[in-house]
C-alpha cells in the first residue's frame, strides 16, 4: 500500500479592515438633522438650539481635523446652520409680534 502525502488544508486569512472612526461626523449629521426637524416646531424648537450648536461644533472640529466622514461632517454643518437660522427667525418673529 502506498502512502500519498496530503497537502495541508488551510483557508487563507484575509486581513480584517476595521472601519475608520467617524463618530464626530455622524454625531454632527444626526444632531443637525434633528435640529432642523425640531426647529420648525414653534415651542418644541427650544430643543433645536443646543442640537444645532452641537452639530456646528462637532462638524467644524471634524472638518478641521481632517477626520474621516467629510461628507457627513459637511451635512452636519449645513443642517446645523439651517436649523440655527430657523431658530433665530422664530425668535425674531416672537419679538416682532409679542402677542
Automatic annotation (TrEMBL):
Record keyword Transmembrane present: yes
Superkingdom of the organism of origin: Bacteria
Keywords, comma-separated and alphabetical: Membrane, Transmembrane, Transmembrane helix
Residues spanning the membrane: 74-97
Name recorded for this polypeptide: Lysylphosphatidylglycerol synthetase-like protein (DUF2156 family)
Amino acid at each position: 500500500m502506498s502512502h500519498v502525502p496530503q497537502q495541508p488544508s488551510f483557508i487563507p486569512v484575509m486581513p480584517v479592515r476595521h472601519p475608520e472612526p467617524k463618530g464626530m461626523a455622524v454625531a454632527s449629521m444626526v444632531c443637525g438633522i434633528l435640529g432642523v426637524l425640531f426647529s420648525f416646531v414653534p415651542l418644541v424648537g427650544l430643543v433645536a438650539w443646543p442640537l444645532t450648536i452641537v452639530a456646528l461644533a462637532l462638524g467644524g472640529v471634524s472638518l478641521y481635523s481632517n477626520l474621516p466622514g467629510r461628507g457627513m461632517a459637511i451635512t452636519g454643518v449645513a443642517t446645523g446652520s439651517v436649523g440655527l437660522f430657523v431658530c433665530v427667525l422664530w425668535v425674531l418673529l416672537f419679538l416682532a409680534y409679542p402677542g
